[in-house]
Amino acid sequence: MTEIHPTVQILPHSGFSDRQKAMVDMKITSDPPLLDQYGELLCRPGESRTIQCDDLQNVVTIGECELPLIDLSGLMRSNEEKRACVGAIVRASSEWGFFQVVNHGISPNLLGEMRREQVKVFETPFEKKSTCGVLNDSYRWGAPRATSPKQFSWSEAFHIPLAKVSEEACYGEFSSLREVMEEFAAEMSKLAQFLAGVLVENLAHPKEVFEEICNESTCFLRLNHYPPCPISPEIFGLVPHTDSDFLTILYQDKVGGLQLMKDSIWVTVKPNQDALIINIGDLFQAWSNNLYKSVEHKVMANRKVERYSTAYFLCPSYDSLIGSCKEPSIYREFTFGEYRKQVQEDVKKTGHKVGLPTGFLL
Q1: Which pTM does this prediction carry?
Q2: Nearest to 199 by CA among 279, 257, 133
Q3: pLDDT tens digits along 182-193
């Protein structure tokens, strides 16, 4: 939780809103020290944080929406019900880039255990989280590369390769997390490959097409925590982006904050604790020749309530060649490593992830 201790220091910057001036004029103690990092960005010369016209797309939404909800048990029933379920998955992947699933085969008990263990890790004091090397020494917080407040993410996370999940040394004193995380990773992997197979078969390709290039040596789990943000509701918990994988599975809590771009407008996703969220990544958009859409999304911070989520990323090896599934192809062939390098260069140059850059179009 964030504690605020006022001091008499005044840092005059005429471009700040009254609330932001007040935050800069206070000494902040937070875990992690997000306000310190954000305050440093605010104090950069020339930074004006009044909302300009070009910022409106980042803060204006049209209210809550419910993502398409798909009951995966339909895939195990009659041919007619199976076709209807596949059709719903394909439509959602094409029109939304997002959908949510129930009866997905992952037990509520396992999901609950995973969340409880995740909370234990994030409740560890910042000094320990950032130095103890837990979870493959993958702890990250804020946005160290941000050059302006609009590039800042009010969150902390662990980003763990699946290949490390079974290693005892990865957990340190958090030994109770290991067994839960191993089972959770295995179940998420199975579900990701299953859903990818459904989408691949719809394009008349064998469902095993990703099994060789997407395995525990290439995929990731990300544990996210979004602490309460005392500044203002336009602060990002996670900056706008698209995912750089084939598909992502998200397990989130009831707090909400996820927003996605639909028909050029930001919409807020109504949380559903009984469902898992699936979204298409950049690689599946390229492979499907733009049939499946990788959609920009973000998380907005909450002033009073913390939020937790866990994401599974279905990724290939860096030397895997990504090509479109049919001709004429929209995208040239490229390796995942080549794509990731381009993304990093884009972030360095523009401050944000571009998605599938025009350099990959034919």
Answers
A1: 0.89
A2: 279
A3: 999 999 999 999
